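The records we work with from here on pair a chain with its fold. These numbers are not coordinates but entries in a learned vocabulary of local backbone shapes. To see the layout at work, look at the sequence and tokens printed below.

. . .
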Amino acid sequence: MQGPFGRRAAFRYRVAGFALLVAHLSFVCWLTLRPVNVPWVSAAAPEPLATIRADLALSPWSAARSLGGGLLLLAPLGVLLPLARGRAEAYPLASLVRTAFTGAMVAMGFALLRSEVTGQIMNVDAVLLNTVGIALAHVLVVPAVRARLRRRADRGRAAPLPRHDGAQAPTPTIPRVGIAPWSDVSSSSRT
């Protein structure tokens, strides 16, 4: 996005992305970091995929609810993190890796904070599911949105005006200014 309109639009996207990111993280904090009143607390689950296997052993509905909740809890970060960064031109793989890594760190932070709350446990599978959800949301939404923004920016750029004879006018060039010879510069500084 170039020009004053593009800069303003990019700034608006960044502000909106940051505001939505803060709102979503506030909601996730409220949702996950509340004390839970339960008569018992299960042990922490540090073994990867143990909770996922246990959920799949239950009924299909409860497994879908548990796994879907883990995938969807932080999935909006896959879209909000690039939106808050506000760049329409980015390498897709680098953007995915950057977003997935940042999302994994946020998920790990929530998991560590959750372990300190009464009635909550540390679960490695929650971090894995959250990270996969972030990466999936990024892959499904961000490339399409960036392509649309690039098309919109390309349409907004003015095409050169045609000449009256139907041929296109040549691109204007800026004349270059030559550098003064060294002898002229050095002789004036000696006197």
